[in-house]
Every structure is written in structure tokens, then in C-alpha cells.
């Protein structure tokens, strides 16, 4: 392997990390703000968590495509699959929380979690088990 990391790739990765972190913080702050409002329902409070889902997926992709002094950047397709897996897992938790506050039944949110969590975990395990080394030679 050889370094194929350009300054443009570095800028894209940096912009993705900043945007992902800001999306996550935006989702957290809006949820906190709605929680502190008097007439907010659980669905309204957790609804802004969709920003956390998008930010988490973007942050995962951007970190993995960043080359460091010790590791090469990950293949963009593989990094996108890691981002998709992270997004599916986070969306499963998001959809479960919203569903729980919407229907206030226990079995429906579990079914919702199962639909997104199982594929997300399956993809993550596949990626982790087929990972190749990206370490740079010293």
C-alpha cells in the first residue's frame, strides 16, 4: 500500500468530521431544549434525534476515510458501509424511542428495533471480521 491521500481528501474528511459533530450536537441541544419546555411530548423530544443519526453516520465515514501518521485511509466504499451500519444502528434506537412514546406499548418498539438493529449488527460484524490491516510500515 502507498499513501494516496491528497489535500482534497483531507479537506473532505475534515469537513465531514466537523459537520458530523455539529449535527450530533445540534440533535442533542434541540432534544435538551424540547425536554426543558413545559408542553413537549416524548415524540417531540426524541424527534430531533434524527440529526444524531445522520451525524453519527457522517462522522463514522469521515473518520475512517482520514489518513493518519500510523494508518492509511480506508477504502471509501468500505467506509460508507461502516457509516451505513452505524446509521442503521442509531436509526434503530431512534425509531424505537419515537415508537415507544407514540404508542406507549412495549412490544412494538422492540419489533421496530429488531428491524434496524439486526441488519446493522450483521453488516458491522461482517465488516469487522473481513477487515484487513491498514497499518503503515514503520
Structure report:
The chain has 138 residues and is mostly helical. It has 5 helices and no strands. The chain has helices spanning 7-36, 42-47, 50-64, 76-103, 107-129. Helix 3 packs antiparallel against helix 4. The radius of gyration is 18 Å and the shape is flat. The model has no long low-confidence stretch (mean pLDDT 92).
Round the mean pLDDT to the nearest integer and report it.
Answer: 92
Report the biggest beta sheet as strand number plus sense, adding barrel if it closes. none
Oligomer state of the chains in this structure: single chain
CA radius of gyration: 18 Å
List the helices and strands and how they pair.
Elements: H1 7-36, H2 42-47, H3 50-64, H4 76-103, H5 107-129
Structural descriptors:
138 residues, mainly alpha, 74% helix, flat
Short account of what is shown:
The chain is mainly alpha-helical and 138 residues long. Helices cover 74% and strands 0% of the residues.
Amino acid at each position: 500500500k502507498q499513501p494516496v491521500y491528497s489535500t482534497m481528501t483531507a479537506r473532505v474528511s475534515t469537513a465531514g468530521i466537523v459537520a458530523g459533530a455539529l449535527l450530533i450536537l445540534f440533535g442533542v441541544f434541540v432534544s435538551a431544549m424540547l425536554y426543558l419546555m413545559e408542553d413537549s411530548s416524548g415524540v417531540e423530544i426524541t424527534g430531533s434525534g434524527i440529526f444524531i443519526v445522520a451525524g453519527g453516520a457522517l462522522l463514522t465515514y469521515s473518520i475512517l476515510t482520514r489518513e493518519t501518521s500510523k494508518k492509511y485511509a480506508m477504502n471509501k466504499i468500505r467506509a460508507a458501509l461502516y457509516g451505513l451500519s452505524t446509521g442503521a444502528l442509531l436509526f434503530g434506537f431512534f425509531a424505537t424511542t419515537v415508537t415507544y412514546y407514540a404508542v406507549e406499548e412495549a412490544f412494538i418498539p422492540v419489533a421496530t428495533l429488531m428491524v434496524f438493529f439486526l441488519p446493522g449488527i450483521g453488516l458491522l460484524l461482517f465488516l469487522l471480521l473481513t477487515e484487513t490491516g491498514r497499518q503503515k510500515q514503520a
